[in-house]
Specification:
19% helix; 8 strands; globular
Length: 126
């Protein structure tokens, strides 16, 4: 298992995109058609930073940015199943999903309000 990506939520994702592309050297790349506005920014051919436009209104005139989740990629189906077994054995609730178009499988675990961990298994491993 390895760190796959980090998701940042912000009101002004255009400014974030410009910073990470123009200053940090990432590039905008393909992104599945999720129901929220955003970008996937790539480094060395991998989508390591996901930007999502905040749907929460700013409070006290300040934007509401935050780190929404970090994601870990699981490299093989037996490790994926072992992860699911550990979650169930510990009675830790999780939600499953599939990424549109790619067929990747996802598990989301809420650790605290507005903080979650995602685990993802590539469709190529099915």
């Amino acid at each position: 298992m390895h760190l796959d990506h980090v998701t940042l939520v912000a009101d002004d994702i255009e400014a974030m995109r410009r910073f990470f592309v123009d200053i940090a050297g990432l590039r905008v790349g393909p992104r599945p058609p999720f129901g929220v506005d955003g970008y996937w920014l790539y480094l060395d051919g991998r989508a390591v930073l996901h930007l999502i436009r905040s749907s929460t209104p700013a409070q006290h005139g300040r934007p509401t940015p935050g780190i929404d989740h970090c994601a870990f990629r699981v490299d093989d189906p037996p490790a994926w199943q072992a992860l699911i077994d550990r979650l169930r054995a510990a009675s830790i609730p999780f939600q499953s999903a599939e990424v549109p178009l790619t067929g990747e499988r996802q598990i989301f675990v809420a650790l605290a309000p507005a903080v979650s961990v995602e685990f993802v298994l590539s469709a190529a491993h099915d």
